[in-house]
Amino acid sequence: MKSLKPLFDKNRQWAETIRQEQPDFFERLSQQQTPEYLWIGCSDSRVPANQIVDMAPGEIFVHRNIANSVVHTDLNCLSVIQYAVEVLDIKHIIVCGHYGCGGVRAAMEDQQHGLIDNWLLHIKDTQRFHTETLAPLDEKQRFDRLCELNVIEQVKNVGHSTIVHGAWAAGKTLHVHGWIYNVANGLLRDLGCGVSSLEELRALEQNTP
Ligand code: CO
Which one is catalytic: 28, 46, 72, 165? Predict the structure, then answer.
């Protein structure tokens, strides 16, 4: 059994560097976590949540899956949202997609990819909802736009989850943001589809092209 020693070496160096800068860092963190943000992002190795917003351990609560999907029957994702909102009292949920997303690209193709195709059907649905917007675009534009539209749809899905509905109904402050990351330059962009109430969610649904 190969032990992947280089990773353990890197881990020791990393922990030591942090300990030198902040001797009580890990001890303090072991007492509790108080992150202010829930990040729902893609599993893509080029889109690591903490690093691209330059945040330390403890600062961001993270859920990642292929193509940053929020599916209303996915107990994994829903449990993360519930824990973040109801236990950690997080006020900001960020759905972050990225250009060049392999999941979105696969959903645009007609090829078979196996089990993953079932997951990608949700993106195919998004593509179908926006047929008119996507049809006139060239292939590159269509891919970029579907990456963006996928984020906007997931913002709606987060907003319509029972957890977020419940939080808003109870008068809690809770913002859902939709961002996209450009793997080619390392920069994030706010897609301007954020919602902070059921009214804003309804307006987003009316206005999405
Ligand atoms: Co992706």
Answer: 46
